[in-house]
Design a protein that fits this description.
The chain is mostly helical and 182 residues long. It has five helices and no strands. It has a domain at 55-129. The protein is 73% helix and 0% strand. Residues 1-81 are annotated as: Disordered.
Amino acid sequence: MADDTFPAEPVKTGPASATPNETATAPAPKAAKAKPAEPAKKTGKGKSTKKSAKTMIKDEASKLSKQAGEKARGYARDGKDRASGAIDEFAKLLDDAAGSVDSHMGEQYGKYARSAAGQVSGFADTLRSREVEELLDDTRTFVRKNPAIAIGAAAAAGFLLARVLKAGIDQAGDGFDEDDFD
């Protein structure tokens, strides 16, 4: 029985249907080259608006950065002045205590107390006379040379700060009655 759905010979189309001689002499069809899509053209106005907005944002960020830096330096100067004042007070306290140490423990120990007071006072003078940037540079240098001491000091300062904050929170909590929240 013959199958009617398939033709007896395959149908040849395109270059494959050509005879070998025709294929050798006929040029191959060229594929159409696709042109790359051109970006949408921007008007001069949009481009300048984009640049000016970018410039404006950079300028504002620069101004804010300068203001923040100046504010931080101001706070650092205030802190430095307060710290040097407190250290001076501590030096005076040590010097005053030296007289008491002389009478109770002997002049040798009083001399140590006066020496300690002088060292503390000298530190306060150094702190007062130097600029904040110099102090920061000295601190960076110290941390690079002595990282273990710096880590230990930071841990101690963090511990003390946590204790002070906890004491402040506990004290603030004692001032409230449960009836205040009903």
